[in-house]
Amino acid sequence: MGDHKSASLWRHQDDEYVYTREYAESLDKEDPLRQFKDQFIIPSKADLTRKTIVVPEGDTTPSPPCIYLCGNSLGLQPKSTRKYIDRFLQTWATKGVLGHFTPHSDEYTPQFLDVDDAASKLMAPVVGALVSEVAVMDTLTTNLHLLMASFYRPTKEKYKIILEGKAFPSDHFAVESQIQHHNLDPKDTMILIEPDDPSNPIFPTEKILKTIDTHASSTALILLPAIQFYTGQYFDIREITAHAHSKGVLIGWDCAHAVGNVDLQLHDWNVDFAAWCNYKYVNSGPGAMAGLFVHERHGVVDMDDQESPYRPRLSGWWGGDKGTRFLMDNKFVPRPGAAGFQISNPSVLDISAVISSLEIFSKATMPALRRKSIELTGFLEHLLLTTPSPSTTTTTTAVTDSSSTAAGSSSHHHPHHRRPFSIITPSNPSERGAQLSLRLEPGLLDGVLERLEAGGIVIDERKPDVVRVASCPLYNSFSDVWEFCRVFLGACEEVGGEREREKR
Ligand SMILES: *Cc1c(COP(=O)(O)O)cnc(C)c1O
């Protein structure tokens, strides 16, 4: 987390210059991670609108890359992913079953039997865990169920689960069905933390701690998002976890929007368990194999250890000891750590994509990515909130120069210029990741989306009035952010102006 202000370059610059494309390009030149953009396939504007996937033969019309600010939903494809998957297919094709046990000098991933361990090794530093504390397996909601099967053991006294009232639907359903699975009634078992102001659904840490206090004696488990998918709020994991533990309550974190985005320290923060998917900021493809974290104190499998007793779980052979796994004697010897929560042998096809992506994180490193991310999102916020209106701007290359907006000119005068949107994401960089969520004034969304699309900009909308914009430090540049602001602010002016005229 930490202080961003000292590093915020644009705050020291002459006002007008900050809004120019030239300035954004100068920030890109100084960006130590700039070369990573080239490791990703950025769809062209023509790619996005073409009715086919394959470019028709003979079509050589050049098209510029789109501006992709949607890594919070589905990350872009690394160029290396195809190589990794090809190599896997070739291994399977040329070796068949021998691929399981035989290492090869030109392999990108180890023999099939050990791919899961290779993935854990790369995954651990991304979430701040020991290698033994993570497993790359299954999918997010499935893993939440598996983890709750182990960590949610309701008793007569302690049976409630605390979660937020605006939880991602899948998390809500998973908790609700776990409760029903134990023949309990969600009505008095599911404790939903609701935001004070539904139009500004931010959860102050104080409020979460108070809810924990109120229900501590009857609560079995807390499940919260590390980063809230809608607002982009980054919860204070360390403090909330410590508080839960001080009240004797277990706590798990859904890191779907945090993994690969912020510099998580799940081990040091003493988190009991966590789960995430790998297709958002981790760029492993839609539905890619997910990950989970089990703190080392919960992964002990020594049946004589009184201090850290064995945690019962739903088991399958892949959670069993590697040395005896193939004896097929039906004596389950669990693997220590998170690996012991695995059930099935992993899809090597799928995990190859995860590994190819994690190799990039290993080169870039999370602390460096987070540093850039804070700058990039700060730049986005700064341009959105302070760019002068076109009617008051003279610099020809400024962000809102209406003569160059993708949707055309909007030269009419705005004597009472104000921004027709607000940022609902917290403004403190330690309380957010890459994403900013913008709430547009009623009636603007459709028109603004239309213009963004025409400008080749990919973002994500939540009807009726919110857009989520995520600048990913691996493949987004300061120029991308600048271009988004130019088109977005121009679109707001234009659509807002049209609506004003309609009203008259
Ligand atoms: C993306 C996301 C999911 C999706 O779950 P899958 O099991 O991967 O389909 C669930 N919960 C949260 C919080 C998410 O952000």
From TrEMBL:
GO molecular function: kynureninase activity; pyridoxal phosphate binding
Stretches for region Disordered: 390-433
Compartments it resides in: Cytoplasm
EC number of the protein: 3.7.1.3
Cofactor dependency: pyridoxal 5'-phosphate
Pathway(s) the chain acts in: Cofactor biosynthesis; NAD(+) biosynthesis; quinolinate from L-kynurenine: step 2/3; Amino-acid degradation; L-kynurenine degradation; L-alanine and anthranilate from L-kynurenine: step 1/1
Biological process terms in GO annotation: 'de novo' NAD+ biosynthetic process from L-tryptophan; anthranilate metabolic process; L-kynurenine catabolic process; L-tryptophan catabolic process to kynurenine; quinolinate biosynthetic process
Cellular component per GO, a single term: cytoplasm
Compositional bias (Basic residues): 411-420
Reaction equation(s) it catalyzes: L-kynurenine + H2O = anthranilate + L-alanine + H(+); 3-hydroxy-L-kynurenine + H2O = 3-hydroxyanthranilate + L-alanine + H(+)
Domain Aminotransferase class V, chain residue ranges per copy: 206-280
Top-rank lineage group of the source organism: Eukaryota
Function: Catalyzes the cleavage of L-kynurenine (L-Kyn) and L-3-hydroxykynurenine (L-3OHKyn) into anthranilic acid (AA) and 3-hydroxyanthranilic acid (3-OHAA), respectively.
UniProt subunit comment: Homodimer.
Family statement drawn from the similarity comment of this UniProt entry: Belongs to the kynureninase family.
NCBIfam families in UniProt: kynureninase (TIGR01814)
UniProt name for this protein: Kynureninase
Source organism: Polytolypa hystricis (strain UAMH7299)
